[in-house]
Amino acid sequence: MTRRKMLILCTGNSCRSQMAEGWVRALKGDLFDVWSAGIEKHGMNPFAIQVMAEAGVDISAHWSKLAAELPEQEYDYIVTVCGHASENCPYFPGSARRVHAGFDDPPRLAKDAKTEEEALGHYRRVRDEIRRWAEGLPDTLG
């Protein structure tokens, strides 16, 4: 079976889209070739790297990038994981199916956390929600 090409988009390609790329590679790499990118570049979020490592998925070599920095190709699926990316998704030629799978923004949730552990709790919750989404692929693509 040919692997399908998936692009996961978020606002800054620093957290949610990176976690989603990591989970899809780890859990469904036999079904999908996957990339992630952002509408902007915010750099990698160290808490995202940390909580993914806790779950056994290494995203420490990932980097924040724009879709224009990826090889030019047609995708089968373009998945937005935040509302801003969904509303501002760049145009991609071809027949890619656009899917929105929204997740809360861990940095926003954690900004008022009193401790690092409290902040990490938000990242872990979203990490686990993204994992459940990835485990359900391809069904979770609608």
Would you mind describing this structure in some detail?
The protein is of the alpha/beta class and 142 residues long. The protein has a single domain, classed as Response regulator (Rossmann fold). Helices cover 37% and strands 15% of the residues. It has a four-stranded parallel β-sheet. Helix 1 links the parallel strand 1 and strand 2. Helix 1 crosses helix 5. It is globular and about 45 Å long. The two termini are 20 Å apart. The relative contact order is 0.22.
List the defining traits of the structure above.
single chain; 142 residues; alpha/beta; Rossmann fold; 5 helices; 15% strand; globular; Ptyr_pPase_sf; Ptyr_pPase; arsenical resistance; Arsenate reductase
